[in-house]
Write a structure and sequence with these properties.
By secondary structure, the chain is an alpha+beta fold. The chain has 2 domains: 16-62; 65-169, Cation efflux protein, cytoplasmic domain (Alpha-Beta Plaits, 2-Layer Sandwich). 42% of the residues lie in helices and 26% in strands. The strands form 2 sheets. Strands 3-4-5 form a 3-stranded mixed β-sheet, with helices on one face. It has a two-stranded antiparallel ribbon with strand order 1-2. Helix 4 (135-154) links the parallel strand 4 and strand 5 (157-169).
Length: 171
């Protein structure tokens, strides 16, 4: 059996027990499926094993965030990837270090008829700031950098961006 995925500490919706139980159920289905239909040989057996291997590898990657394009096509992106994009944007600002990032999809952007519009994200970022940096002085630039990175790399826009200064650090 492969190693269980680790809990992402930035995702408060998951805990180790729930993640472990979900992984065990998926692993059980994969194992059962591999054991069933032993009489199928050749191409079908090879194809099924390949699909199950892909499913197993994908389950280990971690939680994803479901997004949609401006034309309403749905896609998923690893939540950790979105967090990394936001952290990198925040870290570009001299004197700031991004710490925790929380990302939620804001579905209020759906059209009046209920059809999905482009994805919008609500983001919370905690940062540490250098002792000689003024928060108001970097606020606009930080917001702009994060919004631009989310737009260019994720394909979404922000409905809200909450910035929390978690700590002050020396140079």
């Amino acid at each position: 059996m492969t190693d269980r995925p680790r809990h992402d500490a930035d995702d408060p919706g998951l805990d180790e027990a729930a993640l472990g139980a979900s992984y065990d159920r998926l692993q059980g289905v994969i194992d059962e499926f591999r054991e069933d239909d032993a009489d199928i040989t050749g191409t079908l057996d090879s194809l099924r094993n390949r699909v199950m291997d892909i499913v197993q590898r994908e389950s280990v990657l971690g939680p994803t965030t479901e997004l949609s394009t401006p034309s309403g096509h749905r896609f998923e992106m690893l939540t950790a990837t979105i967090r990394k994009i936001i952290r990198d944007a925040a870290d570009q600002e001299p004197g700031l270090v991004a710490r925790r990032v929380r990302v939620d999809v804001d579905d209020s952007g759906d059209d009046a008829d209920g059809s999905p519009g482009p994805s919008a994200l609500s983001v919370q970022v905690s940062v540490t700031i250098q002792h000689d940096i003024s928060v108001p002085a970097v606020d606009a630039m930080l917001r702009s950098r994060i919004a631009q990175a989310v737009g260019e790399l994720v394909g979404s826009h922000l409905t809200s961006l909450d910035i929390q200064v978690e700590d002050i650090h020396d140079v």
